[in-house]
Amino acid sequence: MHNIIFLDEFHEVDLKPSEAFQRFLDLTERSILDFFPNNSLQECSCPACGSQETLSQFIKFGFRYLECASCSTLYVSPRPSESAIIRYFTESKAEHFWRDEFIQMTADQRNEKIFLPRLQWIEESILEYFPQAISLADAYTKQPLYLEKLVNAKPFSQKVLLQSFLSQEILQTYPEIKLIMGGISQWKEVKIDVILLFDGIGFAPDVRSLFQTVSNMLPPGGLCFLTTTLSSGFDLQVLWDQSRNIIPPLRLNLFSEAGLLQLINQTGFECIEFSTPGILDVEIVTKAIQSKVSTDFSRFVSYLIKHKDEKTHRLFQEFLQASRLSSYGRLLLRKPR
Q1: Which residue has the higher pLDDT, 107 or 215?
Q2: How far apart (Å, rounded) are the C-alpha atoms in residues 100 and 79?
Q3: Strands of 158-162's sheet, edge to edge?
Q4: What is the C-alpha to C-alpha distance for residues 69 and 256, in angstroms, rounded to an integer?
Q5: How many Cβ atoms sit within 10 Å of the Cβ of residue 301?
Q6: What is the 3-class SS of the chain, one letter each residue?
Q7: Average pLDDT for 218-233
Q8: pTM reported for the whole predicted model
Q9: Residue of 202, 157, 193 whose CA lies nearest to 177
Q10: What mean pLDDT is reported for the chain?
Q11: What whole-number distance in Å separates Cα of residue 75 and Cα of residue 20?
Q12: Alpha carbon of 194 to those of 38, 120, 134: distances in Å?
């Protein structure tokens, strides 16, 4: 199982301008009240290992987060249904602001630091692991800029969008891409060589069913690329309930490394790559300490941030990547032949 280390350099503000990101969080908190009445939520066990034993909990924007006592995955319970999630991402003011305004503010940086490296990862992996692939499906597309890159992705002659959250006006400009709407129950008849699940497992109400559906769609040797935010990452472990990256309903599931590997094994996939190539963990914790958020930092973390120089911080970030302890996870899964 590969673990890729990135030596790139950028800052959180390059992708999340502070004032705009705070506006997004404020809109999210208000939108939740309109879309998720308490009587519509359903209790669930750990989405990774299925355990019902929990260690701790906190409330974020009205949602209750639990930590699994077995695998340390952090998750929301009770949680919304798939149809409620789809409606939220399609209609809420928070998500319209993210797509229509926020993404445009950071278009150049996202293109350089996220979209192009992601497509390069896909193309190189396809050549190595499944060069005969001709069809590609992307689930839960939310960013118009990303769709522009996806339409030209190589070497695919067939492209499908699964439950896109983009407007019909945008989607109609790409008639060469087939569109399947309606959630995972509508995907079952689709047969595809490669599936992209970027950030999708974070808000999927039933990740186990999602993985099983993806497996049924793929041929033997077919590939699934995914990214997600991990609760086992350094900045989330340090900041926990104070983390600005724990955002419901975008992140109903914050898997630990151990929990996600357990889920992958149980659903029958082979994990070719599990990397945590995050760049920002140390920077995020540094900002939190400087802003004096109400968190009790360990003596080690406080000393590391306050008394060690930038070179040490960079080396520590590389250590987090090498040890799969960053909160940004990227994985490549293969259906067994």
Answers
A1: 215
A2: 27
A3: 178-180, 158-162, 135-139, 194-198, 223-229, 328-334, 270-275
A4: 12
A5: 18
A6: CECCCCCCCCCHHHHCCHHHHHHHHHHHHHHHHHHCCHHHCECCCCCCCCCCCEEEEEEECCEEEEEECCCCCEEECCECCHHHHHHHHHHCHHHHHHHHHHHHHCHHHHHHHHHHHHHHHHHHHHHHHCCCCCEEEEECCCCHHHHHHHCCCCCCCEEEEECCCCCHHHHCCCCCCEEECCCHHHCCCCCCCEEEEECHHHHCCCHHHHHHHHHHHCCCCCEEEEEEECCCCHHHHHHHHHCCCCCCCCCCEECCHHHHHHHHHHCCCEEEEEECCCCCHHHHHHHHHHHCCCCCCCHHHHHHHHHCCHHHHHHHHHHHHHCCCCCEEEEEEECCC
A7: 97
A8: 0.93
A9: 157
A10: 91
A11: 26
A12: 37, 15, 8
- Complete domains list, the chain, with CATH: 12-334 (3.40.50.150)
- Identify the residue whose tokens are 């599931």: 253
What pLDDT, in 10s, does the model give residues 235-256?
999 999 999 999 999 999 999 9
CA-CA distance, 216 to 313, in Å (whole number)? Answer: 43
Predicted local distance difference test score (pLDDT) of residue 194: 97
Q: Say what the pLDDT of residue 29 is.
A: 94
195/167: higher pLDDT: 195
Statement: residue 38 has pLDDT above 80 = no
- What pLDDT, on the 0 to 100 scale, is given for residue 189? 83
pLDDT at 226: 97
Query: Residue 66 burial (CB < 10 Å; 0-12/13-18/19+)?
Result: buried
- In angstroms, rounded to a whole number, what is the distance separating the alpha carbons of residues 200 and 250? 9
